[in-house]
Amino acid sequence: MKGIVFIMDGLGDRPLKELNNQTPLQAANTPNLDKMAKKGINGIMDSIKPGIRPGSDTAHISILGYDPNIVYTGRGPFEACGVGIDIFPGDIAFRCNFSTVNDEFIVTDRRAGRIRDNTSSIISKLNEMKIEEYEDIEIVFKESTGHRAVLVLRGEGLSDKVSDADPKIEGKPPKIVVAKDDSAEAKKTADLLNKIVKKSYELIKNHPINLNRVEKNEPPANIIIPRGAGAVPDVEPLNSKYSLNSACIAETGLIMGIARFAGMEIIEVDGATGGVDTNLDNIVDTIMDNVKNSDYDFFLVNIDGADEAGHDGNYKEKLEFIEKVDDIVVSKLLELKDTIIILTADHSTPISVMDHSADPVPIMINGSDIRVDGVNKFNEIDATKGGLLRIRGSDVMDIILDLMGKSPKFGA
Amino acid sequence: MKGIVFIMDGLGDRPLKELNNQTPLQAANTPNLDKMAKKGINGIMDSIKPGIRPGSDTAHISILGYDPNIVYTGRGPFEACGVGIDIFPGDIAFRCNFSTVNDEFIVTDRRAGRIRDNTSSIISKLNEMKIEEYEDIEIVFKESTGHRAVLVLRGEGLSDKVSDADPKIEGKPPKIVVAKDDSAEAKKTADLLNKIVKKSYELIKNHPINLNRVEKNEPPANIIIPRGAGAVPDVEPLNSKYSLNSACIAETGLIMGIARFAGMEIIEVDGATGGVDTNLDNIVDTIMDNVKNSDYDFFLVNIDGADEAGHDGNYKEKLEFIEKVDDIVVSKLLELKDTIIILTADHSTPISVMDHSADPVPIMINGSDIRVDGVNKFNEIDATKGGLLRIRGSDVMDIILDLMGKSPKFGA
Lengths: 412, 412
Known about the structure:
2 copies of one chain form a homodimer.
Chain A: E1 2-8, H1 24-27, H2 31-39, E2 41-46, E3 53-54, H3 56-63, H4 68-71, H5 76-82, E4 92-101, E5 107-109, H6 119-126, E6 138-143, E7 148-154, H7 184-204, H8 208-215, E8 223-231, H9 238-242, E9 246-249, H10 253-261, E10 265-266, H11 280-293, E11 298-303, H12 305-311, H13 315-333, E12 339-344, E13 361-366, E14 389-392, H14 396-403
Parallel strand pairs in A: 1-11, 1-12, 2-14, 9-10, 9-11
Antiparallel strand pairs in A: 2-13, 4-5, 4-7, 4-8, 6-7, 12-13
Helix pairs in contact in A: 5-10, 11-13, 12-13
């Protein structure tokens, strides 16, 4: 028996006047999702708890069975996972921007002219960095997309209780990082970070890429500015926690980062853009191939387009994307045998809000021996009549494991 | 966008034979509440958790987003807030009775003949109190209604782990207060309290008010007897916790005390009695005026009559009061624009129980973009068919904040 948790990112919505007071999911023509609802058990889910407005990261952390209130110390560690740095409990990770400072050390462009190319070569130079007083601390940089990068500090006596170096506006120097508590660890980390920021300028201001940018009148990526400190928590990998052999099929670095963080394997999909233009054929082929032919027994799948359309406030795009997923992907999922499928969302991204909201999301479970509940449409409203009633993200792994016959008994 | 949490105290009930097996809320004619149900999303709520029989205080604490298991150390601090004493974390607060003792120091009347007038002048005398060995401890008395008063102790090394001085029955001397644990703080506080009880008798036995009462053959209020010790917890005020500018419109000292405790402003209403005879016109005018014209963006409203009728076991009074609230108050609430209204109760006060019960209460949410669920009556039974399903008191603030667009995102 295999298991799939299939997340349509940002799927949930609120009624829209333009759709005759229906949500995009209600208004969309989704024969396959509805068939799944009819064959399965339905309900609504709060990925964290009622009223809490989740990020995609905290929602997925919760759905994978980890407590985001404990595990989510900051964005840094998940960004680090997302760009593929191997991180270890106790590491302190930061999001960074390549920025531009002038000779007076004033930030003139927080995003270094939105530099897109060749940051990996600048990063190579940064990775030569050693800070004299802190030679025992390992300093690891890695480029992300565009002007973004990640910094990981590894060694004894560090803390994530430090402020950001990012001044947030241009025309100011990088902020002096300060300790957020009285610990020696926080003071040490703050001092180290201030030295890293200075040192980064020394190391890369005359990097060939930057000299070239200056020549072309583009802002050089001549300094690195960290923010969003987070200590890497000590979590049990998903596979050992639940005795699974798990893999993640996702489109965005954020979700892949969460999956890597949980120790899952990442299966990449050609043409997966994370937008409404993503290659759904490739995604569903990858799912079907791996469920049928690989040794993985558990899959986290995330398709991001509905969230993107929600953030853009584009109800037509959201509705059409839902119909495409229904047609191309869900139609195939219905063919799977010996598989428990939980299809849900991580959060709502209502068109009217253009951001995540705390509205619960519909959830349905398909598979053999399911207690079918008579709900025959998959949407936010009909789901409330279903047999699952209202559950939480933190229930999902336990439920799917039980239905897969892989759940340990608690007691005798 | 403004928000109102509107509590009909003790509204929930159980089916009554006299009402053809309907609850008073079911049997009442409530076109406006039903219109709200039809326009909104409905459900049931356990203000603390299923099966826990809440007080109005603990229920409101939970609904305001504080954990009563942590915050509710005893009745004292909330009574102190209710009578308007400014309390601070670490203060130890007590409910007190004015009582009557005879020359042998035996309590002959625990309520001093239910004295109603002039207790403030006796309190003034009590506030001169100094206890020799504890001159660093500030001792603050304040009168409440009737024979009731409040005592607050402020200073270093105090504890709320002390027993009551109240002997509970007449014919006995005040109980010697003892420490409930081995701490020096509890022993010190117990010793101090015993001295305060004795000293109170010395200070007020010959107070003119008391000499006058003795002359008129009324029991003098010649001693003060504390009970219900509670340490004032360190809580974040509601306004900073949720970035709100909040106010409370309530009828009873208990609810006003909770609101003051949460740092809310109190808006007083002329003619609000807390009974079924309360001036509902003034209450609704106060609500409407403040929602429309004040800078407050969040209101806690409590109307107490249904609870009173429940305690009295008077189903007709409860039903009629519900109809009056529907007619006078809810009809107007329906006119409010750009306002999220959560209408619910703090607990059930079933006619057949004549006290609070743990039966969940109906809850409904109105406002723009709400996921309307097809429920078209507001009562304990229809509410269970609604889209909210079953939530908790501790979800209420998070949910209303999200719908008001004031919720921070947890994660990215």
